């Protein structure tokens, strides 16, 4: 299976990193002393360097994913501690087998007779620290890559959830709103044909928006507001003279990207729960956009319909989904206030979004 560009770059980075580390620690540092060292010393350097590379990738590919990431932290530490001790013991055994201390003495002090001395464990400790540095680097790299992978997966799942919730909102508005609006337009054809044509044009424009604009992650604010205006105008067809509408949506507005159908559930909620066929009703909808901040305010009279219809339940679920979409799309860029005023018997929503 051929490697992709990302894999090739990763291999190249690993190769260059080890080459730089090996040259600095195991080649340049010894050569800086200006003394010709025996071949046994360079064999030891190569052996030590090979073992460090080995433990790096054993940790990277096996111990970290199968032990550390399985929450077996004590076992992971014990394995690496044992491996570090074994690493130092092998180097000590090599020194004793090749008589490297004597050979190094002759290289540095050829005029002085070699006298065996107790081993200086300072160098062994430094080797152990280099070993643990290799383990620490492999653990850090693997941990960062796992975090990036988990974050990517989380973002993909969040995006899938956003898409599924948006599809739910599209399904929610299609069967109820469009069916009722078509009935109203049909009745209107017997009264005012021109008005019915205008309503039909608005409905087709809304359907086009639902079909095409909601396939995108963002749409233009002007298109979203055109959709809302059409929705309000078509809702007027169902209202009686007992309903007072106050709509403040600017005709011209600064352009900005916005998630499609984000504002509709709050406006739709006003008409579903703020209109009574017998009592006086009022609906207030205002929208402002200044310095990239969009402010939507809705207010309606509270009428207790005790409605258990699927449409009424869908409205509640729609608001919950919209809150979820706001949290996912505009996490720290929005402020939503929803509450009832018992004195005025009104329900009010104030939404602020930084676009």
From TrEMBL:
Family annotation (InterPro entries): Bact_2-comp_sensor_kinase, HATPase_C_sf, Sig_transdc_His_kin_internal
Keywords, sorted A to Z: Kinase, Membrane, Transferase, Transmembrane, Transmembrane helix
GO MF terms, alphabetically ordered: protein histidine kinase activity
Domain Signal transduction histidine kinase internal region: 165-242
Origin: domain of life: Bacteria
Coiled-coil positions: none
Transmembrane feature ranges: 12-35, 41-63, 75-94, 125-144
EC annotation from Swiss-Prot or TrEMBL: 2.7.13.3
Pfam family, one: His_kinase
Protein's recorded name: Sensor histidine kinase
Source species of the chain: Belliella marina
